UniProtKB/TrEMBL annotation:
One of its GO terms (cellular component) is lysosome. The gene is CTSO. Its EC number is 3.4.22.42. Its main location: other. One of its GO terms (molecular function) is cysteine-type peptidase activity. Belongs to the peptidase C1 family. It holds the Pfam family Peptidase_C1. Gene3D superfamilies: Cysteine proteinases. This is Cathepsin O. It comes from Ursus americanus. It catalyses: The recombinant human enzyme hydrolyzes synthetic endopeptidase substrates including Z-Phe-Arg-NHMec and Z-Arg-Arg-NHMec. InterPro entries: Papain-like_cys_pep_sf, Pept_cys_AS, Pept_his_AS, Peptidase_C1A, Peptidase_C1A_C, Peptidase_C1A_papain-like. Keywords: Disulfide bond, Glycoprotein, Hydrolase, Lysosome, Protease, Signal, Thiol protease, Zymogen. SMART domains: Pept_C1 (SM00645).
Amino acid sequence: SLARCSEWEPWPLFESLSRHRYLNSVFPRENSSAIYGINQFSYLFPEEFKAIYLRSKSSRLPRYRAEVQTSIPNVSLPLRFDWRDKRVVTQVRNQQTCGGCWAFSVVGAVESAYAIKGEPLEALSVQQVIDCSYNNYGCSGGSTVSALHWLNKTQVKLVRDSEYPFKAQNGLCHYFSDSHPGFSIKGYSAYDFSDQEDEMTKALLTFGPLVVVVDAVSWQDYLGGIIQHHCSSGEANHAVLITGFDKIGSTPYWIVRNSWGSSWGVDGYARVKMGGNICGIADSVSAVFV
């Protein structure tokens, strides 16, 4: 999917309060249900929010039905698992007004894949992917699968974020010599797990954090709890990274790292109900191999 991820005016805030009442009341309340309210995006009209932050697009490159994959072994599934507990997930970042969510999610997966392999956990350059992934549109949007295809085809070595820092806008691609140290990938897989979230759980345990593309229109107002409604499959517009899951409570959920800063959601994370392909979370899933 192509993921793309002002002055204060009272009218957008008034509209958002009306929207919050709807989001919080239209379905029967459960203790675990998501809560919607005032956050850092409340000053934006929904159309503005979508234009700035929801810029992930669907890829024309193929995805594979999970049943044709032989690389996902049968593993016993714990009730709870989070790669953060293994200290192989970098801190939540903030894409600001750059629609580069597609790059943040892909780079996050590469960072974790190397850390799982035993390398030091390091923040890698999202700006390098935004500037250099020629089959995408930088801060105007992109496809996670296209970005992975580019990384795999060119064998580009991602440098550290400190060497090529994020500037929240498109720039000219900065090239490094072949001898410059960096982090390339050996491959990736793209899956459609839309009716096989148990298989998706096995992929998470086997391969590491998963790149996914979701419908995040209602996430503009998300404060916490488990997202179960107000989004759909087939409307992919935002790329994120699944780091884990929790099946302990009455409503099992995916643990989802976003790129809207740590003040958004639950310390920068969302919780999305497992099962039912909520927000299309299982439609376009990618794993990275290093």
